[in-house]
Design a protein that fits this description.
The complex is a heterotrimer of chains A (318), B (315) and C (297).
Chain A (H helix, E strand, L loop, with lengths): L6 E10 L2 E11 L4 E5 L6 H8 L9 E8 L3 E2 L5 H7 L4 E4 L3 H4 L6 H13 L3 H14 L5 H5 L8 H13 L5 E5 L7 H18 L2 E6 L2 H7 L2 E6 L2 E7 H6 L4 H11 L34 H5 L5 E2 L5 E3 L6
Parallel strand pairs in A: 3-8, 3-9, 6-7, 7-8
Antiparallel strand pairs in A: 1-2, 1-4, 4-5, 9-10, 10-12, 11-12
Chain B lengths: L1 H27 L5 H6 L5 H10 L6 H14 L4 E2 L4 E2 H37 L4 H15 L2 H15 L15 H34 L3 H8 L4 H23 L1 H15 L4 H10 L3 H29 L7
Helix pairs in contact in B: 1-13, 5-6, 5-8, 5-11, 5-12, 5-13, 6-8, 7-8, 7-11, 8-10, 8-11, 9-10, 10-13, 11-12, 12-13
Chain C lengths: L25 H4 L1 H18 L1 H4 L31 H37 L1 H15 L3 H12 L3 H11 L1 H17 L1 H8 L4 H38 L10 H9 L7 H28 L1 H5 L2
């Protein structure tokens, strides 16, 4: 992992209501890089994003570990005032369902203009001109009229385009995209992903996608982090991971996604299960076809592989 | 939206019609013969008949109702023999402004105090402040306003001598003295609403603050105060206005009691006095006026929803 | 579809600790509810055993002890006729509770009839009855009660009727809503198809679904009835003196606030405490049994 990382997360652990939702999550991100957090429902992918945006207060969760942002230092434990200076300007986020992430009582134009005026200190007219420009860039036709539309008057795709425009309004260094397309029609999904990738790439911004769809991740992201029940099981360059997954869970995900129709479906059996009753060791042990007796007892550390830029946490890898 | 509005207005008119019919009919049932009442103890049969005809009381019920409704709509409400004035002048020009001033001032107080209290206790959920606000809200909604009025008179008027306790000076003619006289009555009447608004604001804001758009507003760097006071509070306006609309009846009946406690010459006082002196025409006028007021304001509240919540506007 | 699972939720589903099955008893969960219930029972006890509990005759006047402040002889003082306030408050509990309960029952009965008729009739009858209910609701209950008092005159029985009639509106509305809910359920249709007589359908299917929520409403609205009836007395148009009615006592003391504040304050606090206790009880019962609140719509 390069020393010029934009974001470095080390042993991020998060407890909520007595349950360990995230367990020593470690990952890093280079400037301009696109990373996908992949895993099934409840794996803690979104929680990582909200924790790194500082959206979880001490009442919501107990957070330990480190997260360093280049030029900023330690993020975790910052007071709310410093977080709010960082958010919108250097860190930004696109939410799962744009329809509920836009305030229903304000026009989308006003929501975008407010961000521009407050974060960049633009004048009313300058902010409006910039908003118009942003709307056109994210592919909203008839941008002038759409500025004065309320969220409910726009289609789901349009709403997500607005969210993209708002998220990128102040040229952030790091964008979190939390399942940005799961609420949209399949045909529009690709467009939105393309838009986010294009816009972040032209700005040189990094992007962390939260995805449950491995296929989508493989098409769009430089690197992948596979999570299972709050633990990182494998991470590395997308192509390498998908070509030769070494963790049994990654392999199952891959077989379930990429080889539909060519051979028998082999989905992970069962479900993640309750966080209250997790094994001491590898959390995947109970569902793992290659589990050894030690797997449930002793937690496999996330070890960087000697070959190439990847890491793995498994006692009995493929 | 316009169609919905028209339907709503039509419904309101039907309700007004039924209310007027019921008011007229019911007070017809009241004991005592208005002709006899007007003539006094001694009268001749012919005098009785001629006055009866003059007052239209020999006509069938429906005709009498129509005549009464026409008179009511045109402002010809008859004369009060007790107060010795024209009832329309008495009710609409003298009593109504007092009641409306008291009601609107109380509502103003209630929103001014209740919303911030509710917001603070939602933001500081489960703190000591929140618990205190909850106790206040519970006590405030259950406490009878007339008792509160008397206690306030005793404390601020008698013990501390800070505020006048009786008498009415119109704030429209003399704003300073008028408002000064209105402070205690308005405080009395608004306590229930402060408590209710605190409770409602807290409950709805806690729900609103869990919405994704609040997290999204924070995610784009909006400071905490703006997230709460702009994004949060704007979204509770709708439920707040709805409940306030539903509670207008409580506000109106509160004015009746408050007016009695502080001897304010408003509608409530007018109606109570008329009931005591058995002047049914005045009771009729007062009840009709109150109902019309209440129904009209409810209609306005209903029609205001689309302005408060963009989602209700026609697409 | 190439999705592993449908959605990613940040937290696993919380254990179903709040499910109805796991609820602990109402009394344990809400200590305030228990206190309020005990307080209400104390009032009921005072009302029932008034002659044995009250230290004096509530209408016995005494020139020697006019406007005596609270003290050992008269714990809560005396009024301008020298009547013992504590005794009047204890007897007053009888009036408050009896008037409250009777008028709520009148309101509930009237609401049941109108609501059932509106809910079952359908067509223009329903429309007309709904507009009538709207009209009843168009007047604040106190104003309506005042109008009825104007016709009926004063007295305990008149107050009960006036307050009862003024409360019909809200009851009718909830009954109709419940009937509508039953009506869309299939078994009514099924019963009709099997040509079971209408009254039997009503008795067997509609009434049971309506009466329970109505009973809940009755308990919740007792405090409202007590408040409206004592308001009438306070306005001087309800119960007539020398009845030991709290509203009346507060009104009588109003003129003496400067010299004898206890005359209003004592019966007022008695009323306020009962109303607060009843409203805590009402909140508890509502949260426990109101399907609308539980559904969280």
């Amino acid at each position: 992992m390069s020393s010029a990382a934009l974001l470095e997360v080390e042993d991020l652990t998060l407890h909520r209501g007595g349950n360990r939702i995230l367990d020593h999550v470690t990952l890093s991100l280079a400037p301009g890089e696109t990373l996908a957090l992949v895993g099934e429902s409840g794996a803690g992918k979104s929680t990582i994003a909200t924790a790194l945006m500082g959206l979880l207060g001490p009442k919501d969760a107990r957070i330990e570990g480190h997260a360093r942002l280049e030029g900023q230092g330690e993020l975790l434990g910052m007071p709310e005032r410093r977080w709010s200076k960082l958010r919108g300007r250097r860190l930004s986020m696109i939410f799962q369902d744009a329809g509920s992430a836009l305030n229903p009582c304000f026009t989308v134009g006003r929501q975008l203009v407010t961000v521009l005026r407050r974060n960049l200190g633009l004048s009313r007219t300058a902010a409006r001109a910039r908003a118009l420009e942003l709307f056109e860039r994210v592919g909203i036709n008839d941008a002038e009229a759409r500025l004065s539309a309320y969220p409910h008057q726009l289609s789901g795709g349009m709403q997500q385009r607005v969210m993209v425009a708002i998220a990128l309004a102040c040229n952030p260094d790091l964008l979190f995209a939390d399942e940005p397309t799961s609420a949209l029609d399949v045909t529009i999904q690709a467009q939105i992903i393309r838009l986010i990738l294009d816009e972040t790439r032209t700005r040189g911004a990094s992007c962390i996608f939260v995805l449950h769809d491995l296929a989508l991740a493989s098409q769009s992201c430089d690197r992948i982090v596979v999570l299972y029940a709050g633990q990182v099981v494998e991470s590395g360059v997308t192509a390498e991971i998908l070509e030769a997954p070494r963790h049994p869970y990654t392999a199952q995900l891959k077989s379930c996604v990429l080889e539909i129709g060519t051979r028998d479906l082999d989905p992970p059996e069962g479900s993640v299960g309750s966080y209250a009753a997790m094994p001491k060791g590898c959390r995947f042990a109970r569902r793992c076809p290659r589990a050894l007796p030690r797997c449930a007892e002793e937690r496999p550390p996330l070890v960087p592989a000697p070959d190439g830029d990847r890491a793995l946490a498994c006692w009995n890898p493929l | 939206m316009i169609l919905r509005g028209l339907v709503r207005i039509g419904q309101t008119l039907v309700v007004l019609l039924i209310v007027s019919f019921a008011t007229f009919g019911l007070l017809k049932l009241a004991p005592g013969d208005p002709v006899q009442l007007a003539l006094g103890a001694e009268y001749s049969e012919t005098a009785y008949r001629s006055l009866q005809r003059e007052m239209g009381l020999d006509q069938p019920f429906l005709v009498q109702y129509l005549a009464w409704a026409r008179d009511f709509a045109t402002g010809d409400w008859g004369r009060s023999y007790v107060a010795r004035t024209d009832i329309f002048t008495f009710a609409v020009l003298e009593a109504l402004p007092v009641t409306l001033t008291l009601a609107s001032l109380s509502l103003f107080f209630a929103i001014l105090i209740g919303v911030p209290l509710g917001v603070l206790s939602a933001v500081k959920k489960d703190s000591i402040f929140d618990a205190g606000a909850a106790v206040f809200a519970l006590t405030g909604t259950a406490f009878p306003s007339f008792l509160l009025g008397i206690l306030l008179i005793w404390l601020f008027g008698v013990k501390l001598g800070l505020f006048p306790v009786m008498g009415y000076v119109s704030p429209w003619q003399d704003p300073v003295t008028g408002l000064y006289h209105m402070v205690l009555p308005a405080l009395t009447l608004s306590t229930y609403f402060i408590a209710m608004i605190t409770r409602l604001t807290r409950a709805t804001l806690i729900e609103v603050l869990e919405q994704p758009y609040i997290a999204a507003a924070r995610a784009r760097g909006e400071p905490r105060w703006r997230v709460i006071w702009v994004h949060g509070v704007r979204n509770i306006a709708m439920p707040l206005v709805t409940i306030l609309g539903l509670q207008l009846g409580t506000l109106l009946q509160g004015t009746v009691l408050t007016e009695t406690v502080f001897s304010l010459p408003g509608l409530g006082q007018m109606i109570t006095d008329a009931v005591l002196s058995r002047e049914y025409v005045v009771v009729q006028a007062g009840v009709m006026l109150t109902a019309t007021l209440f129904i009209t304001i409810n209609l306005l509240v209903d029609l205001s929803y689309p302005f408060l919540d963009p989602r209700l506007r026609a697409r | 579809m190439a999705a592993v699972t449908d959605m990613d939720s940040p937290t696993p589903a919380p254990a179903a600790a709040t499910g109805p099955g796991r609820r602990s008893s109402l009394f344990l969960r809400r200590p305030f509810f228990t206190i309020a219930l005990l307080a209400t029972l104390a009032y009921v006890g005072a009302a029932v055993f008034a002659p044995w509990v009250a230290p004096y005759d509530p209408v016995q006047q005494s020139i020697d002890a006019m406007m005596a402040p609270p003290g050992p002889a008269h714990w809560l003082g005396t009024d301008s006729y020298g009547q013992d306030i504590l005794s009047r408050i204890i007897y007053g509990a009888r009036y408050a509770l009896v008037i409250g309960l009777c008028s709520v029952l009148i309101g509930a009965a009237g609401g049941l009839v109108i609501g059932l008729a509106a809910g079952l009739a359908g067509g223009w009858v329903e429309w007309a009855l709904m507009r009538v209910i709207d009209s009843i609701l168009a007047l604040p209950s106190l104003i309506m009660a005042v109008a009825f008092i104007a016709i009926l005159g004063q007295g305990v029985d008149k107050v009960v009727i006036a307050v009862g009639l003024s409360m019909i509106g809200p009851f009718a509305r909830t009954v109709r809503a419940d009937v509508m809910q039953v009506r869309v359920q299939l078994y009514i249709e099924a019963a009709r198809l099997m040509s079971i007589p209408r009254w039997q359908v009503i008795a067997r299917h509609v009434l049971p679904n309506v009466v329970f929520p109505l009973a809940v409403q009755v308990t919740i609205r007792i405090s409202e009835a007590i408040l409206v009836s004592s308001s009438l007395s306070f306005l001087g148009i309800g119960v007539t003196p020398p009845t030991p009615d709290w509203g009346l006592m507060i009104a009588e003391g109003r003129g003496f606030v400067a010299f004898a504040p206890w005359m209003s304050a004592m019966p007022g606090l008695a009323l306020a405490l009962l109303l607060i206790a009843l409203s805590i009880l009402g909140d508890g019962i509502r949260e426990e049994y109101d399907p609308k609140l539980r559904g969280g719509s």
